[in-house]
Amino acid sequence: MSLLSVRDLSVKFAMRDQTVTALRNISFDLARGERLGIVGESGAGKSITGFALMNLLSRPGYIAGGKILFEDRDITGLEDEAMRDIRGNHMAMIFQDPMVTLNPVLTIGQQMLETLYAHRKLSKAEATQIAILKLREVYIPSPEERLDQYPHELSGGMRQRIIIAMALLLDPKLIIADEPTTALDVTIQADIMELLLELCHSNKVGLILITHDLGVVSQMTERTLVMYAGRIIEAGPTREIINDPQHPYTQGLINALPQQTPPGHRLKQIPGNMPPLTAIPPGCPFAPRCGFAVDHCRTTLPEVVSYGGVEVACHEVNRLHNAPAKEKSA
Amino acid sequence: MKDMPDTAPLLELRNLEKQFDLDRGFLETIKFKGGKIYREKRAVHAVNNVSLSANRGEALCVVGESGCGKSTVARLVAGLLTPTSGEVHYAGERIDNRSRHDMMPLRKKMQMIFQNPYASLNPRMTIQQALEEPVRFHNPSMNGSEVTDRVVEVMKSVGVDPSWSRRYPHEFSGGQRQRIAIARALTVDPEFVIADEPISALDVSIQAQVLNLMLEAKEERGLTYLFITHDLSVVQHFGTRVVVLYLGTVCEVAETDTLFSNPKHPYTKALLSAVPQLSDAKPDHIRLKGEIPTPINMPKGCPFHSRCSYSDARCLEEQPQPLHQPDGSVVACHAVEENRLDG
């Protein structure tokens, strides 16, 4: 039994004059304790996926179709009351900016105890004990003192550790982390990534890591989904995707990194921009930017096919794979 | 342009310092502690005794983490801030003490590109107006059609479609706006461009487009860059020389190849080891102890000593001086000087 199973999930936003499809038929599974990365550029639908899983979409966004199964229980469109039990207890979310996530007028202790009281019947002493334990787990020095401090008294890295400690308070089985290290410096980012990995291992927590950084995905996850314009265009084991990407967009994304080109040479850029969700072209959404697009790419939406160990949504994956290396890197 | 020997650096910073006062008025400086009233003036020591130089045609990169003073250095060079002490020399002339008026001819030679293209373009000006403004301002003798010609030419060279010129900034994506911001800097035909995190706000595929554009502009126009960034993979690709800053102090200056193949300062090593890699290899990330101290209470001795695993008694007391190394790099570290580092 998988921990989380998403089937044909679609999310739409009802705007004044039109309805915009933000997610189109997303399907994936997550095993217990598995670490899954979701990569893509801004507007690809990564964060919307995270919000939809937590049932945090607010109007005008809504789930237009599909199912989210958590431990075989359908949690799509659950009542608020029932969903509150799942959030925190079973799934927790970590956001990008720790300064925005923490309440600036409450101490760290107040915020942690509030979460505990909301879900468990605990005395103040018991709750404080749990909070201190969790702060220690994320290597916060002198946790007793931190409980009385306000968020502004702490550094960015420390705040993100506290957010992680809060996510772990009720021992969830799944953590959804939306760009957890993007606002941090590289040395702090490396610390936080190490910490998240360690916690996932020791507590057998599943992780969905939403990020734009392929390096982070490569070091943190076992499987990866690549998203583009609201669809999953490639999915598979992270190593396969990084070392031998099949979709032209994934290839372009990896080739565009400065590390992939000798210093001083022209980077291999992907021409153009991702289409806005209001104007997604018919056919393959990547076709206008794709160097391999042929006529039917522009008219027919590609189905997801298995190819070389990954799932990929591309009509031309066969031709691409047999193309000489020179054409590939063009 | 004056005849300058090519060997002279285009830009030179000498012992540059910048402090921002935290307690400004008299009343703010009065503190009460331990039953006594006393006066204390606190200041943020953003840039401390920084000396560097950039030669013509170079892309000098300044890297460091948030709060290390990178952007302050950029603003000091551009004349947007006045240094507390020290000097900025441009093409052999001192520029930090110039009046607004005397600075004007230099503004044409020196342009700046900012991080956030959403904030750096005036939302109420069309692209045409935004691009023409600096040309008109710096070339009052040009007539209307000459100005338009110049703008169209620059737009074409940076891949901005001249048919966009009647549209407003909000109609464009981040990458397109950054192109427009670069075009705006290039319209006055500068020789020196200060770029403060120009690609940090952009997506990966767009970052590559903008970096390519900046490299092309460098080759075609012989530009010199002062490039401020926190992204080391961009530095490796773009920079000719790298300055590593920590707490407003220079740790290491080296040619890009040298820095990446043989980093010497313990901080540089930690910084390089922290970059997430694509490869399968397990990262051997060097963990730094503690947290970055605030630049309000600058630690005595080496600014990095509180987080360095090689620090000893001397590091606590004496600030290391930048010393030249056999391979041409400059490193400010007692442990490097005394050969205490292994490997």
The tally of beta strands of chain A, per DSSP, is 12
Secondary structure class of chain A reads: alpha/beta
Annotated CATH topology of chain B? Rossmann fold
Largest sheet of chain A: 8 strands, mixed
Structural class of chain B: alpha/beta
- SSE string of chain B, helix = H, strand = E? EEEEEHEEHEHHHEHEHEEHHHEEH
Number of helices of chain B: 11
Order of helices and strands of chain A: EEEHEEHEHHHHHEHEHEEHHEEHH
The backbone outline of chain B, from C-alpha atoms, is: globular
Give the radius of gyration of chain B: 22 Å
Low-confidence stretches of chain A: 325-330
Strand order of the largest sheet of chain A: 6-7-8-3-9-10-12-11
Overview of this structure, please?
The complex is a heterodimer of chains A (330) and B (343). Chain A is α/β, with parallel strands linked by helices. Chain A has 13 helices and twelve strands. In chain A, helix 5 crosses helix 7. Chain A starts with a strand and ends with a helix. In chain B, a hairpin with a 5-residue loop joins strand 13 and strand 14. Chain B is globular and about 70 Å long. Chains A and B meet through helix 7, helix 8, helix 9, helix 10 and helix 11 of A and helix 6, helix 7 and helix 9 of B.
How is this fold's topology laid out?
The complex is a heterodimer of chains A (330) and B (343).
Chain A: E1 4-14, E2 19-30, E3 35-39, H1 46-53, E4 61-70, E5 73-74, H2 80-86, E6 91-94, H3 98-101, H4 108-119, H5 124-137, H6 143-146, H7 156-168, E7 174-178, H8 186-203, E8 206-211, H9 214-220, E9 223-228, E10 231-237, H10 238-243, H11 248-255, E11 305-307, E12 310-312, H12 317-322, H13 325-328
Chain B: E1 11-21, E2 30-33, E3 36-39, E4 43-54, E5 59-63, H1 70-78, E6 85-90, E7 93-94, H2 100-109, E8 110-113, H3 127-138, H4 144-157, H5 174-186, E9 192-196, H6 204-221, E10 224-229, H7 232-238, E11 241-246, E12 249-255, H8 256-261, H9 266-273, H10 313-317, E13 323-324, E14 330-331, H11 334-337
Parallel strand pairs in B: 5-10, 5-11, 8-9, 9-10
Antiparallel strand pairs in B: 1-4, 1-6, 2-3, 6-7, 11-12, 12-14, 13-14
